[in-house]
Design a protein that fits this description.
There is one protein chain. The protein has 711 residues and is an alpha+beta fold. It folds into five domains: 4-152, Rossmann fold; 174-218 and 484-607, Orthogonal Bundle (Topoisomerase I, domain 2); 224-272 and 419-433 and 458-477, no CATH class; 288-409, Topoisomerase I, domain 4; 623-709, no CATH class. 37% of the residues lie in helices and 21% in strands. The chain has 21 helices and 26 strands. The protein has a seven-stranded mixed sheet with strand order 2-3-4-1-7-8-9. Helix 9 crosses helix 13 (392-406). Residues 159-597 form the Topo IA-type catalytic domain. One of its GO terms (molecular function) is DNA topoisomerase type I (single strand cut, ATP-independent) activity. It is an enzyme of class 5 (isomerase). Pfam families: Topoisom_bac, Toprim, Toprim_Crpt.
């Protein structure tokens, strides 16, 4: 009789599960655990290694698809097929044997749509979907949570629609990438573009949003503006105030001063002193996005780095599941946090008397927790040895989560806001300041010593008190929008609805939280970095020349707008809820691709794209072409290898240089010397036809061909 087979997503996860049981035996491919309450006959724990099973490439369906050709579009398989990754074949074969011998299957991969797909595709490939399937659904890898989850497995049917949604995502992204990448690349290459474009359902509109911001900055025209500022002196000190004036012309402001007979050194009177006590509640518990944004702001960690760090802390059983979009927990989590309050305070070395030990709806609301609750510390409080073993980055993230969680139990941050209105000859000046009264939850977070205190402290004044003022015109310049930091890309993707004009699309984007999902946004950002669409320097994001060409190419199409993603994400969500069909969704995607195929080639023939291609050629160019003097010598690649040629090939310039000559690789420095000087210095490393080494200079003949110069 077969045992229950538990399929984890990765080896570390399988190891964590096994630690909740008594282990019978360990092998290279699985762990066997002894019988217990959850599995009376025992169980086998095995694992995927990420995506063991993947969609096949186009050439699997037809060899003609191996080479990009517009005539072969669209590529739409009648039935999608999958294969096992070649480098994971050995492990998959062992997993397949275990699956076939099992009496029931337990999906224990990550508790999200992607995790569901990883397991289900392995079952599908192994042809074992007819067996009983259960689902493990837990938010912590602590031993007691694992045991509790294993003893209360969900029916696999409850989460099957998550698989259908994830699979629809995979197939649609495949269709968009495999069809639209050649559709945009090949016509651009015919126009002189040296490279290829990767088009993505989510990555393309993401790049375009960054491009829009960059255009706003580059096209911004800074203009002067003028205000009236007063520096006032009273009995107890001095302070500054501003009149409610902001004009583009200095003359207008001067006219106002003249109207009030203000000469520059004038007497004023305190018209009013208004003091208000204000309270600031502690921040909401962290979702993955809010944690990524906070960590980037504090330590400049990239979103991908934050996900990797928090995943490690989850694997170490000290943090809850990281890929969550929730800011709430249930009363169950609140109860254990309350019980362990002292332990968490010791971690931060910050002991305080909790203001309240009852759940607050701002943080604790089970009705707002769907699949996962917020990221919080687990019951497993790390000891000194474990904390010492954490990296600096891991400590920072762990402390951040603990501090935000403890904020629930702390008092409000209380401060007093003071507003002074000073009247100078009928012109009022406003001054505001802030005085801290109680630190409250602020005391949980370390103060950055380098950060200047921006709070203005005003002197004590009373109504009708005299104030001597130095009044003058203050000139300023309007400022462009700031470029995105890498951490701000997460929020940009979540809130991109503000760039959409259609009210329905705005609502849909709000509902699905913009572009991508909590689990995929950081990988999308990494992908557009790897594709060289964006560059990140000192945490500031800019669009590269390649990214600009992409954005010019997709400008005006649905690929440049979050609206398309809004509609797609909305329907994908319906599939996950059991209210939509994969077939209908893929029909819509196919119709969209066919529309693009009929429209895109003509749309790409515009001057702005030609200009961007020329800019790219110039920036990538090794030197000016020695023949036509208009184009640039650039590196080119073909199926036969690399060579150098003029960027004005389409305009008739046929100059080309080989990348190798007599066994010697000709680098860009050599090509630049030939193009600019017509010759090089003596070069070593050439080989004759008889295999003998020799050295020689190179020079260009009258037809711009390279020849040896032995003189």
């Amino acid at each position: 009789m077969g045992l229950s087979l538990i399929l984890a997503e990765k080896p570390s996860q399988a190891k964590a599960y096994s630690e909740a049981f008594n282990v019978e035996k360990r092998t290279k491919h699985y762990i066997e655990v002894k019988p217990d309450k959850a599995f009376p006959n025992g169980a086998i724990i095995t694992w995927a290694i990420g995506h063991l099973v993947e969609l096949n490439p186009p050439q699997f369906y037809d060899e003609k698809y191996k080479k990009w050709d517009l005539a072969n579009l669209p590529i739409v398989p009648k039935t999608f097929s999958y294969s096992v990754s070649k480098d994971k074949k050995e492990h998959y074969n062992e997993v397949e044997k275990l699956l076939k011998n099992a009496k029931e299957l337990v999906i224990a991969s990550d508790i999200d749509r992607e995790g569901e797909a990883i397991s289900r595709l392995i079952f599908q490939q192994a042809k074992v979907t007819n067996k009983p399937i259960k689902r493990l659904w837990i938010n912590s890898l602590e031993n007691d949570e694992v045991r509790k989850g294993m003893e209360n497995l969900r029916d696999g049917k409850e989460t099957y629609n998550f698989f259908l949604e994830a699979q629809a995502r995979q197939k649609s992204d495949w269709l968009v990438g495999m069809n639209l990448s050649p559709l945009f690349t090949l016509p651009l290459q015919q126009r002189g573009y040296n490279g290829s474009l990767s088009i993505g359902r989510v990555q393309s509109p993401t790049v375009y949003l960054i491009y829009q911001r960059q255009n706003e900055i580059e096209n911004f025209v800074s203009k002067p503006f003028f205000q009236i500022e007063g520096e006032f002196t009273v009995k107890n000190g001095s302070y500054k105030g501003m009149a409610d004036v902001k004009e583009e012309a200095r003359e207008t402001v001067q006219a106002l001063l003249d109207k009030h007979d203000i000469t520059g050194k004038d007497q004023g009177i305190i018209q009013s002193v208004d003091k208000k006590e204000k309270r600031q509640k502690s921040p909401k518990l962290h979702s993955l996005s809010s944690l990524q944004s906070a960590a980037n702001k504090k330590w400049k960690y990239s979103p991908k780095a934050v996900l990797d760090i928090v995943q490690k802390l989850y694997d170490k059983k000290i943090l809850s599941y990281p890929r969550t979009d929730s800011h709430f927990i249930t009363e169950s989590e609140f109860h254990y946090l309350k019980e362990n309050l002292n332990g968490y305070q010791q971690i931060l070395n910050n002991v305080f008397t909790p203001l309240s030990l009852t759940p607050n709806k701002r943080y604790v609301d089970g009705s707002k927790v769907e699949e996962h609750y917020a990221i919080i510390p687990t019951k497993a409080i790390p000891n000194e040895s474990i904390m010492a073993g954490l990296s600096t980055e891991e400590k920072n993230i762990y402390h951040e989560i603990v501090a935000v969680t403890l904020g629930m139990f702390h008092g409000d941050y209380i401060f007093e806001e003071t507003t002074i209105m000073t009247n100078v000859k009928g012109l009022p000046f406003k001054s505001t300041g802030k005085t801290e009264k109680e630190k409250g939850w602020h005391s949980l977070f370390p103060v950055n010593a380098d950060k200047k205190d921006k709070d203005t402290v005003l002197p004590t004044v009373s109504k009708n008190e005299q104030a001597t003022g130095i009044i003058g015109i203050k000139e300023g310049m309007t400022q462009p929008p700031k470029p995105y930091t890498e951490g701000q890309l997460i929020n940009m993707m979540k809130t991109c609805g503000k760039y959409v004009e259609d009210d329905k699309d705005v609502e849909i984007l709000k509902d699905v939280e913009g572009l991508g999902t909590e689990a995929t946004r950081s990988s999308i950002i990494e992908k557009i970095k790897q594709q060289n669409y964006i560059d990140v320097k000192k945490n500031i994001v800019s669009v590269t020349d390649k990214g600009k060409i992409l954005c010019e190419a997709i400008d005006g199409t649905l690929l440049s707008s979050p609206s398309m993603t809004a509609k797609w994400e909305s329907y994908l969500k319906k599939i996950g809820e059991g209210q939509g069909s994969q077939e209908k969704f893929l029909e819509q995607i196919t119709a969209f691709i066919n529309k693009m195929i009929s429209e895109v080639p003509t749309q790409l023939n515009v001057p702005s794209i030609a200009k961007k291609i020329q800019d790219q050629q110039q920036s990538n160019g090794i030197s000016k072409c020695p023949s036509c003097q208009n184009g640039f010598i650039i590196e080119k690649k073909t199926s036969k290898g690399k060579f150098y040629g003029c960027s004005c090939y389409k305009e008739g310039c046929k100059v080309t240089f080989p990348a190798k000559m007599a066994g010697k690789t000709l680098g860009k420095t050599i090509i630049k010397s030939l193009s600019t000087k017509g010759k090089t210095n003596k070069i070593k490393g050439f080989k004759s036809k008889k295999g003998k080494d020799f050295e020689a200079a190179l020079k260009l003949d009258s037809e711009f061909n390279i020849e040896f110069d032995f003189s």
